[in-house]
């Protein structure tokens, strides 16, 4: 078509799956729509207006999001929309969207080639996590679209690989809502890159000023006050000169990087954005089920790194003070847990409560930004207070998760009683002392 096509406000030009070669397309306003299925084999618009209007992909069949043939740049869009009821629409190359990306159905897929999307406006994903297949691609936000006044909005739950925003002074508004909550998730291997400038920080905050959460926030009553952030173990933060408000990272707590303001809570109302990386639970375990403690499993507030070269702990029996020899450390998998491995005692000790503390740490850090050392919380409890060294917190008491085992049995000739020695005191499921019936015996039993 060797002419200029102008699409009026609230009017849709539907090209369906037809091939096209058009000299020029302009849009009268932001409700002017050019529709296509993405199934075309030939698609050229020599001059394309990208200041207004929407290019919408639709149709239940899979299709492409074209990255060539659109204007002089070939890959520039005004606003890009994936229509409700659409199938999977896959990028053919890197694209740049001058205004907004809107996903109302199907899925926008960056393809196995991990193409990038540069967005100058807002992002709306009403489908949720399945509406955007980020694979290992990058989405760049710069907030430069006309009329945005240096702000952008991110709506809907999204799973990002690389989320990038490096425009100083920009404010990013993330959708917050009553349960089910809206989540911004960074996949394993991905990066949350938000970098402002000294004196011109980027602000990340909630979209709706719905009220003030409690300290600590109530679940789920206070969920509506937060935008939720998940930095999955294996993903990293690349943040500097950023102010963070009303963010909840309770699923995967975040170590606050230098030059990032997210604390104190009563100023920024960010939950589980941490200035310290604490151990919060520890459990005795018997990995070979012989009734002897051989390790302590420690759970931290968030994911940890895996360098134990400069990490050292001390372990002792809470009741007797007898020391346990530490033989090493390991992290079973990426996440918040690690093991303190112990030399087994020559006797059954499954029910023993242990105390342990960090005495040296020059290497074991958080697994998000790697700038906070792992340590124990402080305590005023007389048993847990560390009077020798407070550099890494106080003693922590273990929780018993060791299964009781039979240590030995004793039967005397001519007697109808069997003595059974367990590795620790045991009770029935009702909480009472076991008797002969609990062991399928027909006579009496004495437990010692």
Count the E strands: 42
Roughly how much helix do the residues carry, as a percent range? under 10%
Structural class given helices, strands, pairing?
A: mainly beta
Count of discrete alpha- or pi-helical segments spanning 4 or more residues:
1
Global morphology:
elongated
- The radius of gyration over CA amounts to 30 Å
How many strands, which pairing sense, and closed or not: the largest β-sheet?
Answer: 11 strands, parallel
> Which stretches are low in confidence, meaning pLDDT under 50 for 5 or more residues running?
none
Strand order of the largest sheet: 2-4-6-9-12-15-18-20-22-25-28
Report the span from N to C terminus.
Answer: 96 Å
Mean pLDDT: 93
Q: In percent, how much strand structure appears in the residues?
A: 35-45%
Strand and helix layout:
Blueprint: E1 4-7, E2 12-14, E3 20-27, E4 33-36, E5 43-48, E6 54-57, E7 63-65, E8 76-77, E9 79-82, E10 88-91, E11 95-97, E12 101-103, E13 107-109, E14 117-119, E15 123-125, E16 132-133, E17 138-141, E18 151-155, E19 158-165, E20 171-174, E21 183-195, E22 202-206, E23 227-231, E24 236-240, E25 242-244, E26 247-248, E27 254-255, E28 260-261, H1 265-268, E29 273-274, E30 277-285, E31 295-304, E32 311-317, E33 323-324, E34 326-330, E35 335-342, E36 354-361, E37 374-375, E38 396-397, E39 399-400, E40 406-411, E41 418-422, E42 446-447
Parallel strand pairs: 1-3, 2-4, 3-5, 4-6, 6-9, 7-10, 8-11, 9-12, 10-13, 11-14, 12-15, 13-16, 14-17, 15-18, 17-19, 18-20, 19-21, 20-22, 21-23, 21-24, 22-25, 23-26, 25-28, 27-29, 30-37, 30-39, 41-42
Antiparallel strand pairs: 30-31, 31-35, 32-33, 32-36, 34-35, 36-38, 40-41
């Amino acid at each position: 078509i060797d002419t200029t096509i102008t699409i009026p406000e609230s009017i849709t030009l539907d090209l369906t799956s037809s091939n096209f070669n058009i000299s020029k397309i302009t849009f009268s306003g932001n409700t002017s729509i050019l529709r296509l299925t993405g199934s075309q084999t030939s698609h050229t618009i020599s001059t394309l207006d990208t200041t207004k209007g929407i290019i919408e992909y639709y149709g239940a069949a899979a299709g492409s999001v074209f990255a060539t043939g659109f204007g002089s740049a070939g890959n520039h869009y005004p606003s890009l929309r994936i229509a409700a009821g659409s199938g999977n629409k896959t990028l053919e190359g890197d694209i740049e969207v001058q205004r907004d990306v809107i996903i109302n159905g199907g899925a926008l897929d960056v393809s196995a080639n991990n193409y990038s999307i540069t967005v100058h406006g807002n992002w709306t994903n009403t489908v949720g996590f399945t509406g955007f297949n980020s694979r290992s691609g990058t989405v760049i936000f710069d907030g430069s679209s006309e009329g945005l006044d240096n702000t952008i909005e991110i709506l809907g739950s999204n799973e990002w690989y690389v989320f990038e925003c490096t425009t100083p002074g920009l404010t990013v508004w993330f959708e917050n809502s009553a349960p089910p909550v809206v989540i911004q998730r960074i996949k394993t291997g991905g990066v949350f890159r938000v970098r402002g400038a000294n004196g011109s920080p980027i602000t990340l905050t909630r979209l709706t000023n719905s009220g003030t959460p409690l300290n600590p926030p109530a679940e789920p009553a206070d969920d509506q006050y937060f935008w939720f952030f998940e930095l999955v173990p294996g993903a990293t933060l690349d943040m500097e000169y950023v102010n963070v408000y009303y963010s909840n990272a309770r699923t995967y707590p975040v170590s606050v990087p230098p030059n990032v303001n997210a604390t104190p809570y009563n100023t920024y109302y960010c939950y589980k954005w941490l200035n310290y990386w604490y151990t919060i639970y520890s459990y005795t375990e018997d990995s070979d089920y012989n009734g002897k403690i051989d390790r302590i499993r420690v759970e931290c507030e968030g994911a940890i790194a895996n360098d134990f070269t400069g990490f050292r702990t001390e372990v002792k029996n809470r009741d007797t003070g007898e020391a346990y020899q530490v033989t090493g450390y390991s992290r079973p998998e990426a996440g918040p847990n690690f093991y303190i491995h112990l030399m087994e005692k020559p006797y059954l000790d499954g029910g023993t409560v242990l105390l342990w503390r960090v005495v040296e740490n020059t290497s074991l850090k958080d697994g998000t930004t790697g700038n906070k050392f792992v340590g124990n919380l402080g305590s005023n409890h007389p048993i847990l207070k560390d009077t020798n060294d407070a550099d890494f917190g106080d003693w922590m008491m273990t929780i018993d998760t060791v299964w009781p085992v039979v240590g030995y049995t004793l039967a005397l000739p001519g007697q109808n009683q069997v003595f059974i020695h367990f590795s620790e005191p045991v009770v029935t499921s009702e909480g009472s002392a076991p008797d002969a019936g609990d062991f399928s015996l027909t006579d009496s039993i004495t437990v010692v």
